[in-house]
Amino acid sequence: MGLDRTSEVDVANAGEKTRRGSVRGLDGTIMKTDDGNVEAQGGGGPLAILGGGPGGLSVAYYAAKRGIPFTVYEAGPRVGGNCVTFQHGDFLFDSGAHRFHDKDPEITAEMQRLLGDALKTVDVPSKIYDNGRMVNFPLLPFDLARHLGFRTLCRAGLEVLGSRLGRRRDERTFEGLSVGRYGRTIAQRFLLGYSEKLWGRPCVELSPSIAGRRLGGLNLWTFLTESLRSSASNSRHLDGRFCYPTLGIETISRRLAESFGPRHIATSAVVTGVAHDGHRIEAVEINGRTWVRTEKVVSTLPLGTLVRAMRPSVPERILELSNALCYRSLVLAALFVNVPSVTRAATVYFPGRDFPFTRVYEPKNRCPKMSPAGQTSLVAEIPCRGGDALWLLDDDQIVARIRSQLVDIGWLRPEQVIGSAVTRLNHAYPVLTLEAEQAV
């Protein structure tokens, strides 16, 4: 069992050296000479798509449907960007707890046409691990009442009430939004510490946009009424139904790429320059040596990477603004376990600061084919900054720590872990601080 690699997109030739001081474009036309001038009239087509992750491939998919010539430039050796599926023996695991949410009927229908029977509906809720017990996520009043106890619930209820009757709430930050919606007690326990661990910044500096839709369901009325209702009446709020492709999230990227073919894709193609005349983009440079003429560009690169690639350079103020948007990196630690199942959750969130990871997911709960029969795997996500102590920690030390903590909470016995894998992802999440939101 494993990923079907027979249709994997081949690495495209990113250009070849010609006479001294010049390089040849993808179409064979000389693109840049000794003086640095772009002189070719041809190139990679009217549209250059920078980045071969799901976003870039989706642009390419619709461009192909409309007959627009294009080329996708992906820095990695295969399409998918940071949204790929790894294989370790007979185990498969994604580069994060990815899933496809049915939010837009038109997009979902398009994905169903593209993937066919490979796109499955999964109904598995997420949980929060708190002091040895599982709590439903998103947070539900009834569940909180049962988990926290009457005294803590009353204190939290009074905090929510006070935030509405007191002075005007400041919801311009994620901390203000969380405390205003849940009260300080619940926000600190479940949201603020977790978010600071995930994003690496104090919550008072984070934009409320990071909350998405998951903080919108709790107001004073629901807090007071739903706490008294049965768990069945709360179940409609559980975030447990989603779509997921057979054999992992990379299936989406591979099917998108297959729909328009490898001749439109250049992999191992790092964008190192973007030439412009002050009004429009004229060409992109690949791997520091090949310039390709283009009429339009769609970029899914990190904003700072794109801005720094501009030739000539953009004004210093623009550079400063682009640097305001920072990114978190991820270390993924996968444990392969000789038991049929460990959790019944899609994802388990760990807000406690004593855990270096923010969440753990069990790939088999998304698709049974992600693990061999009778075995399963657990993947822990450890957010960090590229090049920091966590990022540089030895793989064996990372695995030992994750295994030890999962053993301590009763999920595993040491002898049940039959293997492991560690992988690192740069630019995993943009950090939406207030400063970055204003700058962008």
Secondary-structure blueprint of this entry?
Layout: E1 16-17, E2 23-24, E3 30-32, E4 47-50, H1 54-65, E5 70-73, E6 85-88, E7 91-94, H2 105-115, E8 119-123, E9 126-130, E10 133-137, H3 141-148, H4 150-165, H5 174-199, H6 220-226, H7 231-234, E11 241-245, H8 250-260, E12 265-266, E13 271-276, E14 281-286, E15 290-293, E16 296-299, H9 303-308, E17 310-311, H10 316-323, E18 326-337, E19 347-349, E20 359-361, E21 376-384, H11 389-392, H12 395-408, E22 417-431, H13 434-439
Parallel strand pairs: 4-5, 4-16, 5-12, 9-19, 13-17
Antiparallel strand pairs: 1-2, 2-3, 6-7, 8-11, 9-10, 13-14, 14-15, 18-21, 18-22, 19-20, 20-21
Describe this structure in words.
The chain has 440 residues and is an alpha+beta fold. The protein folds into 3 domains: 16-83 and 249-323, 3-Layer(bba) Sandwich (FAD/NAD(P)-binding domain), CATH 3.50.50.60; 99-138 and 240-246 and 326-440, Protoporphyrinogen oxidase, mitochondrial, domain 2 (Polyamine Oxidase, Chain A, domain 2), CATH 3.90.660.20; 139-237, no CATH class. It is 30% helix and 25% strand. Strand 2 and strand 3 (30-32) form a beta hairpin. The longest helix has 26 residues, at 174-199. It is globular and about 65 Å long. The relative contact order is 0.17. Residues 1-43 and 232-237 have low confidence and may be disordered.
